[in-house]
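To whoever is on call:

I kicked off a structure prediction for a single chain this morning and the downstream step that reads the tokens threw a length-mismatch warning. I double-checked the sequence; it's 131 residues and nothing unusual in it as far as I can see. Pasting both halves so you can look.
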Amino acid sequence: MSTLSWGWHAPAHSNKVVRWILAALRGIRLALDRRNEAMLCLSTVHIEPPVFETHLSFESPYLGFSFYPNQYGGFLMVPSRSKLEVSALHELPPCLEAVIHYAAHRGYQWIKLDPAGHVVAELAQFHWETP
């Protein structure tokens, strides 16, 4: 038997259990670290205003991606490259398709659409009326 610092006597095999638990916790931490996903912050000028209203809402007619709107724009989940090849992105308006492909080919999993986001020269830009 071994004595732990607080005076509790533990059987010798408890060290193996403790090592196993610590190894499991390290594995969980590594798995959570891998879940960090890259996000691209793009300006909303790359999406046509009518497209934003029709395709980027909870009531979107296109259910091939997730979009979470907020008061400034929202967060768009980017399909993986393998899903892009087999998906029906061709049914999307060209501006939305271009933004998704731009992010996917650069390894991003999310796009934050925000008026103050980055403006990319190679993507189309559209005029938004300011209130």
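Update from on-call: the warning came from a stale cache, not from the record. Cleared it. Sanity check on the structure: The chain has a mean pLDDT of 76.
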